Write a sequence for this structure.
């Protein structure tokens, strides 16, 4: 057993355990913290795969910014403890059906489409140098320029929407 | 896969050096701050324990260790216990990417005076700074008390807002250094420190870091007059000491980062010949920057909270975006025309861009004070 495999197994265990913890905990703050742990574990996965930029971006954006906002909202609204009874009674059976479907689909694809481990290409030599970032930037601004711009406009619209929602209407009181 | 045990030993020793340097630095930074503040306020400061009061930090440490640890009856015990640790760890971990000096020869092998020269060092700094919020937020929430909660909330909002300006103000540095590695950033400043090329970026970074480490004038999370002590109101003994330690270690580390990004890191006259001068230069720079932090604390009153927010979002973020644009344009012009003099357009245009908000704020404040009179 190589070191990489051992690391992967330990990390996978942590990732699955934290995901389960997030789903099962009745306290919203604990759930958010489990999710943070999960995001950080995923970031370490990226590091293992030789993609430090994505790993750092994952920690900065998800674990750092987004989850802090989540926690902030949970604390601000004081909704840390979930109500004992289900608010949406039809939600549970639907969720079970959906997740079974998803699992079946994933299993089918894994069995039929997944390549044996030997076929996976190792990351290029350059991946761990500064060239990595340069290539990422070049790819973003040449091949993927349109999606990039579309995403930026989408984000801008979301931002404007958030500001409009928080603004009081004139005359309304 | 690394099997060379000497490499492990090297990492271990380097980590120990950093941890103890930060621990000692923390103890004597409190002394330094108290003496400097006293000097500015024409007092004497601590001068009883040992010569010039040099043993004061040790006396403080002993006092803190033997203090009783309390925890509120309705606190969330586990998180309450975890929060000080979560606050302290990021402040130490950031130090891993700070280069202390050029490589040196020791015992017949080359030793890099940096713990981890990762190619995304700048982003690593941002990632850790982003995670550092959790300790304070959780401390505020788990104490289950109103003051602590308010302090935690304030610090979350403040740190999220200023992180943005912090991150954007680093982009000019990355552009100028043409790399995200901290070692390359230092090497790129061999000719000229970046503070001369991008003075406005340095200023924004400085203001944002003051907000990140909750120092005056941005110390709303622990405003004594309003919140007793903010997020750590319910903590005592060693747990409080950990918060205390985290704040001062963050000050040291962030001053070192500031020195690396804008003040040439370990560079100085004679470093090429005597690599061991590197850490000395870095220490001097950190020492001076720390004095600036203490000076700011002694001079400036605390910001009002709404002004803090609008300053962060309406002034610092747009201004840092503007200097990113200016820097990129300047570098592009210098490359395209082949005339390096265009680089000097960067500081000139940045300073002009920086003066606009200064003038606007000044005029607005003046108008407000007329209205009040």
């Amino acid at each position: 057993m190589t070191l990489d495999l051992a690391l992967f197994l330990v990390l996978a265990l942590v990732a699955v355990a934290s995901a389960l913890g997030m789903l099962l905990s009745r306290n919203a703050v604990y759930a958010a913290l489990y999710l943070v742990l999960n995001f950080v574990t995923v970031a370490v996965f990226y590091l293992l795969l030789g993609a430090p930029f994505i790993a750092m971006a994952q920690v900065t954006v998800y674990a750092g910014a987004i989850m802090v906002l989540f926690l902030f909202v949970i604390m601000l609204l004081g909704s840390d403890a979930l109500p004992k009874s289900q608010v949406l009674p039809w939600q549970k059976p639907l969720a079970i059906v959906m997740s079974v479907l998803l699992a079946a689909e994933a299993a089918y694809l894994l069995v039929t489409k997944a390549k044996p481990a030997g076929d996976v290409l190792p990351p290029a030599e350059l991946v761990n140098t500064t060239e990595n970032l340069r290539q990422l930037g070049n790819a973003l601004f040449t091949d993927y320029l349109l999606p990039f711009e579309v995403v930026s406009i989408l984000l801008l619209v979301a931002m404007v929407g958030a500001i409009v929602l928080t603004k009081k209407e004139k005359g309304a009181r | 896969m690394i099997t060379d045990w000497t490499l492990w030993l090297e990492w271990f020793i380097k980590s120990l050096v950093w941890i103890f340097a930060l621990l000692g630095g923390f103890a004597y930074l409190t002394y330094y701050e108290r003496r400097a503040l006293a000097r500015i306020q024409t007092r004497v400061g601590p001068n009883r324990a040992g010569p010039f009061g040099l043993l004061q930090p040790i006396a403080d440490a002993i006092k803190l260790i033997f203090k009783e640890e309390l925890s509120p009856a309705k606190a969330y015990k586990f998180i309450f216990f975890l929060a000080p640790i979560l606050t302290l760890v990021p402040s130490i971990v950031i130090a891993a990417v700070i280069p202390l000096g050029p490589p040196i020869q020791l015992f017949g092998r080359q030793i890099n005076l940096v713990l981890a020269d990762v190619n995304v060092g700048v982003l690593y700094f941002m990632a850790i700074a982003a995670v550092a919020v959790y300790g304070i937020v959780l401390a505020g929430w788990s104490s289950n008390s109103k003051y602590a909660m308010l302090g935690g909330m304030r610090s979350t909002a403040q740190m999220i807002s200023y992180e943005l300006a912090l991150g954007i103000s680093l982009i000019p540095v990355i552009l100028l250094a043409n790399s995200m590695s901290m070692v390359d950033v230092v090497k790129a400043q061999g000719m000229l420190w970046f503070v001369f090329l991008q003075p406005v970026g340095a200023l924004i970074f400085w203001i944002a870091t003051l907000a990140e480490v909750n120092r005056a004038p941005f110390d709303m999370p622990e405003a004594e007059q309003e919140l007793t002590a903010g997020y750590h109101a319910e903590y005592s003994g060693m747990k409080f000491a950990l918060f205390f330690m985290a704040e001062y270690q963050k000050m040291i580390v962030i001053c070192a980062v500031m020195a690396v990004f804008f003040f040439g890191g370990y560079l100085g006259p004679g470093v090429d010949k005597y690599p061991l001068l590197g850490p000395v230069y870095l220490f001097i720079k950190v020492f001076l920057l720390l004095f600036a932090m203490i000076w700011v604390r002694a001079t400036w009153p605390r910001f009002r909270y709404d002004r803090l927010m609008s300053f962060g979002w309406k002034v610092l973020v747009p201004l840092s975006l503007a200097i990113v644009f200016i820097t990129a344009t300047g570098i592009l012009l210098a490359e395209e025309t082949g005339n390096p003099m265009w680089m000097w357009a960067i500081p000139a245009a940045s300073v002009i861009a920086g003066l606009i908000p200064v003038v606007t704020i000044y005029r607005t404040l003046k108008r407000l004070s007329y209205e009040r009179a």
